Structures are given as C-alpha cells and as structure tokens.
Amino acid sequence: MPKATRHSNDAVRFGLIINRLRTQRRMTLVQLGRLSGMHPTYLGVLEKGGNMPSLETILLLAEIFKVSAADIVREVEDARKQARAVPTGSIREE
User: Which of 13, 24, 45, 64 has the smallest C-beta neighbourhood within 10 Å, fewest atoms?
Assistant: First the structure.
C-alpha cells in the first residue's frame, strides 16, 4: 500500500498506540512483521502515521498484541477528543 498523500491525525494516533504496544513487548518491527505477515517497512509507516490502517490490519494487530481492537480504536477516539477539547479559560464571556 502506498504512503498516504494526506496527513491524518488519527493515523498518527493509531501509530503511536501500535508503537507503544510493540515496544512494551520488546518486539522489533521485523518480529512484528513475521507474526503479522506484513512488511516491516509498512509497519514502520503505520507507526509514523503515514497510512490509515484497514479494519483487517487493526484486528490482526490487536490479536497479535492480545488486546481488544475496540480498545485500540477507543484509545484513538479518546486522544482525538482530548485534542479537540477547548482549554479551560480560553472562551471569553461577554
């Protein structure tokens, strides 16, 4: 799959989560590639937020990391909400 031409904050958020899960397990991209059947370069692009993963990819990675795919998606969603939150005190009342 070619690298996305449009930047996606959600893809970056997903990549950070996958990177954290992989490094917590002391796993290299090569090891993850062998387990998943995906090329390590592609996995690196995912971790850097270069591509939006397919549902199949999310499900497979969740299975490998022994976590719920819903938990991964929920974490992306929570990070998205946090990024969109308006900081307290930034709205002026008139």
Answer: 24
